[in-house]
Structure formats: C-alpha cells, structure tokens
C-alpha cells in the first residue's frame, strides 16, 4: 500500500494489528454481505476477547459464528441472534455478554458514531426495558442475572417522551463490498447494502473486502455508496472467495406429479 492506494496484499495483512480485546463493527445481515474472508483471517490470527457490534452474530460454523464457536467473543451488541444455537448456549450459560438493541436504533448508533454525533434521542424503546433498564446483559452460571442494562436518560419533546441512545465507535470496522477502487470508494449490491456502510462509518480503522477491485476513476461517483474517506484498507477477493455465498435457509417447492 502506497499513498492513496489502500490495497493490502492479503486479508491476513489487513487485519494483522487487530489486538485481543478490540471492538469490531461488522457488516452483514444474516448471511448476506458478511465479510467472511476477513473474519476467517481474524480467526487464523488468533485474536480473542473481542466485542462485536453487528446486526446478528452469524450462524453456527460460518461468519462470526466461527469466532463465537472458538470462544473468541466476549461481548456482542446486536439486534437479532435467533439463528445461532451456540450463541444461545453461551449467552444463557453466562459465557457471553449480550446487549440486544432495536434494529433501527443499532443502525443509527453506528451512523451517529461515524458522523461525529455522540448521542441522539429516539422514541423507540420508551416504556420498555430498553429505556427503563433491566434487560439481562449477562447471566450467571446458575441462571440468575449477573449484569443488567442500566436505565437511560429520557426527555420530553413536544409532548412525547424519548430515550437517549449513545453512538457506537469501534476500533475496527470489517465490511464486504461488491466493487471498490484502490482509494477505498465502495459500491454494495442489493441487500448487501444493509449494515455494511454503517459498520464502515463506525470503525476508526475500516477494512473492506471487495469482490471486484477497479482502478480509481472507473467508478461513477453517482454510484458510490460509501466514499473512501471512511475506508482505510482494501482487500481484493479471489473469484472463489467472491462466489462463496451460502444460503441461510433453502426452501424448495415439491414438484407436482407429472410436471
């Protein structure tokens, strides 16, 4: 990598300085748009005691599920965790701290962190434990609540009550893009443009794996979803890595007789 060229030779080099105890904002939604190659490199590097901020914690044996299964995650901030049995086991047995956050609130906390906004008010969660506190963040081995969410500041605007939510800024952001150039400008395809731009914005150092690497100037500025100012490192995927996109739930229709 030289000058404005942010391309690293390998995923391992791009994540080599992520230390134990780091906080990561990770893009993806279910199994769509997940930076699985960077996650795999992080697993190989051996980093542990990590806090992950992501819409969900992956599935068993893939994506963030690899780090989770190896006991590398200390804390998870997410909005949905229902597809991972190991996640449920670790959470209920007291091995993992979990901060469940409404999905829109999580998205805005990441966006705010990348925009330099320290906190914001939202009506989401008012009148529930999200605002009042008491959500189990961590269980003890005997099933009792060892750590619960604190009550949050509330304020009334124009006769309606709102709750204060803090922005999220992560040590590192890990994202996956469809196309990207050497300056870090990124384009996301279809549903992969979910939490990826927000996770990238929230990272102090953001690493992007791209399915297709192009030269600066080849991307139409009107097509760029995330400017390179938010991206510090770029990794070009091999065709095999780019094509590796598992299906979360495969459903098929039973063929009609004689069809």
Report on this model:
The mean pLDDT is 94. α5 (103-115) packs across α7. This protein has 259 residues and is of the alpha/beta class. The protein contains 8 helices and 14 strands. It starts with 6 loop residues before the first strand and ends in a 16-residue tail after the last helix. It is globular and about 50 Å long. It has one domain: Glutaconate Coenzyme A-transferase (3-Layer(aba) Sandwich).
The residue fraction in helices comes out at 10-25%
Which descriptor suits the 3D outline? Answer: globular
Query: What's the domain count?
Result: 1
CATH topology: Glutaconate Coenzyme A-transferase
End-to-end C-alpha gap? 57 Å
Low-confidence stretches: none
**CATH class type:** Alpha Beta
CATH level 4 superfamily? Glutaconate Coenzyme A-transferase
SS content category: alpha/beta
């Amino acid at each position: 990598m030289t000058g404005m060229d942010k391309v690293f030779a390998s995923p391992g080099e791009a994540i080599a300085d992520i230390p134990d105890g780091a906080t990561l904002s990770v893009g993806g939604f279910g199994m769509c748009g997940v930076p699985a190659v960077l996650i795999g490199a992080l697993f190989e590097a051996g980093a542990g005691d990590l806090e992950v901020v992501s819409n969900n914690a992956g599935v068993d044996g893939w994506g963030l599920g690899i780090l989770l299964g190896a006991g590398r995650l200390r804390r998870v901030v997410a909005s949905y965790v229902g597809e991972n049995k190991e996640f449920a086991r670790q959470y209920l047995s007291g091995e993992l701290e979990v901060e469940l956050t409404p999905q829109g609130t999580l998205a805005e906390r990441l966006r705010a962190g990348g925009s330099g906004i320290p906190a914001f008010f939202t009506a989401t969660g008012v009148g529930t434990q999200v605002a009042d506190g008491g959500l189990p963040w961590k269980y003890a081995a005997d099933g009792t609540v060892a750590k619960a969410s604190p009550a949050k500041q509330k304020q009334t605007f124009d006769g309606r009550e709102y709750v204060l939510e803090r922005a999220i800024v992560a040590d590192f952001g890990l994202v996956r893009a469809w196309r990207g150039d050497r300056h870090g400008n990124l384009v996301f395809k279809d549903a992969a443009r979910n939490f990826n731009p927000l996770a990238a914005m929230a990272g102090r150092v953001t690493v992007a794996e791209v399915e297709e690497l192009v030269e600066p100037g080849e991307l139409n500025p009107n097509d760029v979803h995330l400017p390179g100012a938010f991206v510090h490192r770029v990794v070009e995927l091999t065709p095999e890595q780019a094509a590796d996109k598992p299906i979360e739930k495969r459903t098929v229709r039973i063929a009609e007789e004689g069809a």
